[in-house]
Amino acid sequence: MKRFLFLVPALLFAGLLVAFGIGLTMDPTILPSMLIGKPVPAFNLAPVRPGDQGLARADLGGEPVLLNYYASWCVACRAEHPMLMRLRSEGVPIHGVDWKDAPADGDKWLQDRGDPYIRVGNDQSGRTGIDMGVSGVPETFVIDKQGRVRYRHVGAITQDDWANKIAPLMQRLKAES
Amino acid sequence: MAAEVGQFALILALLLATVQAGATLWGAHRRESVLMALGRSAAALQAGFVILAFACLAYGYVVCDFSLALVAEHSHTAQPLPYRFAATWGSHEGSMLLWVLILAVYGGGVALFGRTLRETLQARVLGVQGLIGVAFLAFILFTSNPFLRLDPAPIEGTELNPLLQDPGLVSHPPMLYLGYVGFSVAFSFAMAALIEGRVDAAWARWVRPWVLAAWIPLTIGITLGSLWAYYELGWGGWWFWDPVENASLMPWLLGTALLHSALVLERRGALVSWTILLAILTFSLSLVGTFLVRSGVLTSVHAFAVDPRRGVFILAIIGVTTGAALGLYGWRAPSIRSGALFQPLSREGGVILNNLFLCVLCATVFLGTFTPLFAELTGDKISVGPPYYSWVFAPFAVPLLALLVFGPMLNWKRDELAKTVARVRVPAGIAALVFLLVAVFAGLGHAVAAAGLALAAWLLAGSAAILVRRWWSGRAYLGRSILTTPRALVGLAIAHAGLGLLTLGITGVTSWHQDKVLNMRPGATTTFAGRTLTMTALEDVQGPNWQARQARFSVRGPGGTYELVSQRRFYPSAQQQTTEAGIHVTPLGNLYLSEGDESAEGVVIRLWSHPLVVWIWIGGFTMALGGAVSLSDRRLRVGALVKAPQLQPVAAE
Asked: How does pLDDT run across B517-572, given as a tens digit for each residue?
């Protein structure tokens, strides 16, 4: 019994080592969403583009879409923007939410840089951001045909992210009934 | 050319470390003096070659040799000389080289100054040191070579991260590493004891000074890190519970426990296997600290080389080192004879209580740091923040501090409760008085603050009482009594008083800090924490490698009128912005001012009042000073030399 006590530190350490080993294989930048697999919460957002109809929960669904959060004050969004424009030109459907931003600033952003969005709504209070669990901008959600969140991407979408993660997922979602 | 010399020196050092490990361990096993002497020479030579390699890299930095990839990444011709030099350890590769440098120098120290040790014990210590050296030299050469060349060489380098261009970088990492790596000697002694299966008096006498020699720089390093964060990060926090800070705190907590248990082992021959276990765990936690920063397992502001391949290598080093050590411990420790008996209420009992509290504290930090990792294994993502630590760490730290005064008042072997309590009645009276005064003047709403200040007074008075008690008993010959006080005792009193000062600072800043944010324009005036601030100017200034927007203030308050300057610096070649806070330091409290963004409404100015905060760092440095005084004790210098004074007439440390 006493001998066993002296072995306890070694055994505890073995367990710790396994945990470290598994930890190494994980990517610390992956942030899952609470909403994965769940329907997008209801919202109805005011327009960003004057005379437009804004963005509502009912606009999502039917076909797999991207829901992209951006803001005119966000530097990383500036870096992401050309990628969104490219996706749009390739026919990827994207809706936008102008987050914690004045509608006029959000509209100026789209006019200055180009408009990648089908529909875009303004969320000045950041309320939908709380419902969706947005930690900052840019963030992008993949929404399936039933209007459920299937994937959450934190930060700017890079060529790599698109080719390896998001595009294959969109393909699969298209094939779903 | 220098880089090739450095590269070659590193390869030679790796070979020498292999020789050092093989010759000493085999030599000790076969009792071959020649082999052991070969190992000693290899250790000294290895230290020489690692010093040469480090000097080559430092030279590359100082002369801006941008054909070295590492220099090109972290240096710039406009960077001031001290920071070009300090940039040597500002990168992953360079800091690993510093790590190995310190390891090799300690190993060389054991080889040169350890002649009074039993030959086989010294050989085995050197053998284990050599093995650690082999592992880390291989890690540097195979995964993070600092001497890679660039062809063609760039004309100008990328600047070192501006946050790191600070006197803090020059001193903080080397101190921390001296501490981390210093515990490797205690670890090697522990391993040697386990291999030999016995612990003798010479072992105990040797371990404590080495632990102390590691503990002092670690204490200084942590304190410097906290001070650096306070003035450089621009929002006046002094401790963040960041994983990497925790990684330095954990070895410190266990190292402190080791320091105390080694004292019992030295004086009384008790707690043998416990001390060995602490020595193993302390160094293992130092390794985990290295692992955390570099592997990307946990995200942290300090992480500077997130590379899983390196992570796997370091994980393998930790696995083999700690795994072998704990395995050997489980196998050999049960048969090591444990020494003298003692009663629960005794100095030994006090040290055990101290060790229990420190280990629990270390465990709480460990859990807080690694829970996110463990939770991830089950699929959750969580983060552990300061609220966890204030709920879990403080409830164990406060009783430890409260009990700390009793420890040095206890007699070895056994003591009586009534007599012990009587010895601390004066500090207890002073603490009660402080509590009452603060509670009366600040109101009962500040009961926690009053208790904190009382605790600080209790620690300070209790530390003074250690010396006063000795001097009082020898008051007939007071002068001689003071002169003959062992330095270890003075060191003890100073270190414990340092904890009192630390408590004072923490209580002050957590109970009474204030802050304010406002927009200001030149000429505007505001009042804050009993002071009146006027912005006198907002101007552009030019530094050696930065431009700054500088706000000047004239402050009128208790203690007269003075000027305060804060800057927003922009480093063009690094494309980074930093904030240089304006701080007015007084013993009673700091005024901390930092400049923010400029807009149409003026400049955002953040103001903090940090009462008594400066005592946190004074306390930390005081603890280190106590350690240094204790290390200079005659007993440690002479005791280590008992066996062969004719060979070694000079002090060993």
From this structure: 888 989 999 999 889 999 999 999 998 888 899 999 999 988 789 999 999 888 88
Cβ burial of B381 (10 Å; 0-12, 13-18, 19+) is: exposed
Chain centroid to Cα A68, Å, comes to: 6
Cross-strand partners of B562: B555
Q: Does B60 reside within a domain?
A: no
Interface test with B, best of A1, A2, A16, A31 (most B CBs within 10 A): A16
Task: Return d(Cα A86, Cα A65) in angstroms, integer.
Answer: 15
With an 8 Å Cβ cutoff, are A10 and B326 in contact? yes
The two beta strands, B602-611 and B560-571, are unpaired
The beta-strand segments (E) located in B99-173 are none
Q: Name the β-bridge partners of A137.
A: none
Q: Count of domains in chain B? A: 2
* CA B607 – CA A143 distance, rounded (Å): 45
- E strand or H helix that includes residue B536: strand B531-542
Inspect the interface and report whether the beta carbons of B329 and A9 lie closer than 8 Å: yes
With tokens 């009993």, the residue in question is: B530
Record: contact B296-A13, CB cut-off 8 A = no
Rounded Cα–Cα distance for residues B373 and B351 (Å): 33
B373 touches chain A (CB under 8 A): yes
The ipTM assigned to this model is 0.74
Among candidate residues B239, B244, B214, the one with its CA nearest the CA of residue B227: B239
* Cβ pairs A/B, distance under 8 A: 61
In a domain, B58, yes or no: no
CB B503 within 8 Å of CB B456: yes
Let me know: does B555 contact B532? Beta carbons within 8 Å: yes
- Within B474-590, residue ranges assigned H as helices are 478-483, 487-512
The pairing of beta strand A94-99 with beta strand A120-123? parallel
C-beta atoms of A6 and B330 within 8 A? yes
Q: Order across the sheet with B531-542: list the strands.
A: B525-528, B531-542, B547-557, B560-571, B576-580
- In the numeric block, which tokens belong to residue B284? 């293992």
Q: How many CA atoms lie within 13 A of B86 on its CB side?
A: 22
User: Considering CB atoms only, which of A3, A19, A28 is closest to B299?
Assistant: A28
pTM comes to 0.81
- My answer on whether B582 and B521 are in the same domain is yes
Helix residue ranges, H only, A90-126: 103-113
What pLDDT score does A26 carry? Answer: 63
Q: Nearest residue on chain B to A32, judged by CA atoms?
A: B381
Residue B501 shares a structural domain with residue B534: no
B323 reaches A (C-beta below 8 A): yes
Q: Is residue B601 domain-shared with residue B652, that is, in the same domain?
A: no
Alpha-carbon gap: B346 to the closest alpha carbon of chain A (Å): 25
Q: Which domains does chain A have, with CATH numbers?
A: 29-175 (3.40.30.10)
* Range of the structural domain that residue B451 is part of: 424-512+624-653
Contact A9 B377 (CB under 8 A): no
Is A23 in the B-facing interface, judged by CB distances under 8 Å? yes
Q: Do A20 and B373 touch (CB under 8 A)?
A: yes
Q: Does B614 touch chain A (CB under 8 A)?
A: no
Q: Does B329 reach chain A within 8 Å, measured CB to CB?
A: yes
| Residues from chain B contacting residue A10 (CB–CB below 8 Å) | 323, 326-327, 329-330
Cβ pair B329:A10 closer than 8 A: yes
Instruction: Enumerate the residues of chain B whose CB falls inside 8 A of the CB of residue A28.
Output: 296-299
Note the pLDDT of residue B645.
40
Does B643 share its domain with B629? yes
The answer to whether position B196 is within a domain reads: no
The answer to whether residue B319 neighbours chain A at the CB level (below 8 Å) is yes
Residues of chain B with confidence (pLDDT) below 50: 300-305, 639-653
Q: Residues A53-95: pLDDT tens digits?
A: 889 888 888 889 999 999 888 777 888 898 999 998 988 999 9
Domain assignment of residue B72, yes or no: no
